[in-house]
Amino acid sequence: MNSLALSMPKKILVIEDDEVARELMRMALEKSGYQVTTAEDGVQGYDTAIFLRPDLIVTDIRMPAADGIHVVRRVRDTPLLEETPILVITAFGDGHATFSLQQGANAFEPKPLDPQSFLATVESLLSERNTLRAA
Asked: Yes or no: is domain 3-134 CATH 3.20.170.30?
């Protein structure tokens, strides 16, 4: 990997139907130096992921049009995106979180989000991806 690629901000796609939650995540991530794109539902999110090819996808589980589980499954079934780490955000307890992990998500964070925990999980997932790419 060249030095230019290492210096470019990581691209994160946030898929969240709640505007306030979406904007809070966007602001926290941008403040931490990430390039953030947002989508309002799973359909828009998946289409954006194909175009953007993000370094990380953050998705809510419960959304209109297509939920976060649908996003996880489609991303894992898409060769262009299948290795992209996915962080699932849920207010619906460990059952939903466990199911999302079984479907291919890499990690989950409960709502309401703890900003420090959220950013630590984001950094961990991006670091793991960099380690795998370098190997």
From this structure: no
